[in-house]
Amino acid sequence: MKVNTIEQFKVLEFLKSNFEMDCIELELLDRYSIKVTDKTGDILTFRYENEKIIY
Predict the structure, then answer these.
(1) H or E element: which one contains 10?
(2) Beta strand pairing status for 24-30 and 52-54?
(3) pTM score
């Protein structure tokens, strides 16, 4: 996946280190956030804020 901002890049790096990327779908929401959907349809949004990943 190609991201558009540094904040999205930081979220993506977090996701790569904590999730099996073949098992999730990603959607860019805004300059700070990525939405993650797993194979069961559960959704979680990850956001880079104040130098931390928030979910």
Answers:
(1) helix 6-18
(2) unpaired
(3) 0.93
Q: Exposed/middle/buried for 11, CB within 10 Å: 0-12, 13-18, 19+?
A: buried
From 21, 24, 28, select the one nearest 2 (Cα to Cα): 28
Q: What is the pLDDT along the chain (55 residues), one digit of tens a residue?
A: 899 999 999 999 999 999 999 999 999 999 999 999 999 999 999 999 999 999 9
- Which amino acid is present at 33? S
CA gyration radius, the chain: 10
Integer Cα distance of 17 and 31 in angstroms: 20
Among all chains, which residue has been given the structure tokens 């805004």?
30
Would you state the structure tokens that stand for residue 38, as one six-digit string?
């797993």
